Amino acid sequence: MTGYEGVLFDFSGTLFRLEPDPQWFAGLVADDGRPLDDAAQRELLHRMTVPVGPPVPMEGEALRTWHARDLSSADHRGAYLHILEHSGVADEGERERLYGEFSNPLNWTIYPDTEVVLRAARDAGLKVGVLSNIGYDIRPAFARAGIEDLVDEFVLSFEVGHAKPDLEVFRVASAALGLPPERVLMVGDSAEADGASQEIGCGFAQVEPLPVDARPAGLLGAVRAAGVI
């Protein structure tokens, strides 16, 4: 027996992954007038989804918004518009459009084993929570997938005013499940952000944020290895 009575799941790279439609980039050109090639598009995706550390040079107000990006919707927007501006997207209107695509919860793709894992956790009598550093509401992604009823609590950083790896957010999330941290397993793709939960007594299981079609059962394997289902 592991002693876990609840599981907290990260969102990005754990339960869902943002995999942009190539059409988002159609017609985009850099400052020199050349279209953004595949390598530039891949780098742009990395910069828009990196969990920690500024992906482009930032100072002053831009750096402030980066550090506060998951604590308010306004700062989230400001930070990522700055990233787009400094990642080869020259046109302001295109930056606004792309930010809209990147921040649309309905544009996220669910991992193949997400529903299986959430349902197995619930069937095992575990409390299930989603703990995400995010600047907008991701519940619609779960509703569209028909799995919102498998989640007991959503703890979203912009709603609670704390973001991983701040230990307070793990305390808030554990309390939301009605459990002490030592009875909670945190599952996520970042040892730095999600793994910080261990400092207050949570367990931690790590998954790789691979493309959806390259990770058919990685989440299931990680949770099973932790002994909770």
TrEMBL record:
Note the Pfam families from the entry. Hydrolase
**Record protein name field:** Haloacid dehalogenase superfamily, subfamily IA, variant 3 with third motif having DD or ED
